[in-house]
Amino acid sequence: xxxDIFNVTIFGLNLEINRVAxxxxxxxxxxxxxxxxxxxxLAFIYAFVNAKRFGIDSNRMLDVVIVSLPVALICARLYFCxxxxxxxxxxxxxxxxxxxxxxxxxxxxxxxxxxxIRKVDVLSMFDLASLGxxxxxxxxxxxxxxxxxxxxxxxxxxxWFGMSSENTGGALVHPCFLYESLWCILGFIVLHILSKHRxxxxxxxxxxxxxxxxxxxxxxxxRTDSLMLGSIRISQLVAALSFVAxxxxxxxLFIKSKKGxxxxxxxxxxxxxxxxxxxxxxxxxxxxxxxxxxxxxxxxISAQPEAADKISAEDIADMEDAASTAxxxxxxxxxxxLDEIRDENIVSDGGTAxxxxxxxxx
Length: 362
What we know:
62% of the residues lie in helices and 9% in strands. It has helices spanning 31-50, 58-84, 100-118, 122-140, 142-147, 176-195, 203-222, 234-259, 273-303, 306-309, 313-324, 331-344, 355-361; strands spanning 5-10, 13-18, 20-24, 27-30, 163-164, 228-229, 232-233, 347-348, 351-352.
């Protein structure tokens, strides 16, 4: 049996898992990479759809993501190699090894720089990116399942709860990948709802740091493959510090928000749905006014030909007869006939004058 295939038992279900999603010649594409990219794509779609709600221009956001994504992957790999103790294996990406905290740190540093360059509001971008990270992490963690890695310690209190495979030595262990995936899904739902009522910029980012840090602290404590610095689990330490710092800042900012003393740069600028509705109503009113004005102009234009309508059909016939006989008349006689017709039908802006008045003026 190939090393890419595992016989897995999880919560009493027996499965045969293949790490390879598909193969092109001798080149193998693993589920780990496929799921990470799927998470990235779904996170970007969510961010693109919700960018306007956070007051972010989607085109500028795209520029930030294009730079931040590769930096995040590089930092995730670098973080893993540094604490795994084998930096020379950095370019041996086929052997695997990415650390989520390295990716998060790299993404936010690159994002900060790019936001400054592209003039994107940093805290609003971080708020939106945090929700995207939860989507990516929830899906990406299933890559650990296909690789049969990132699992926890042995479970001795149950005969069915947990996961076992060749990589666990046949023992039932904690499926830490599943715990973290479910924690991220729940966090995404909670923070997505919270994002619709955020009181200040950075609220979702800090809430993400607190939520993920809290869950990761306990999940990391179960794992048997943690990156270590001496006797300290690096990810567990980072999780604890993230949780404490985020909670402290959230408390301070919530108090300031309640007192109305938040700095102006922390106040969300995205338009409220109610304001948008009012704007639409105002547009309707302007449209009605514009329509009325156009109608009035149309009436003015239609009123102008009324004077011409007052010329009798008989007068028009006389003019046509004069034109038809023009060739038989001298220029002087033709001019005299036209003068007589004009004298009888003087047209002004207000209409045709009375014939009696014309004769009196003569």
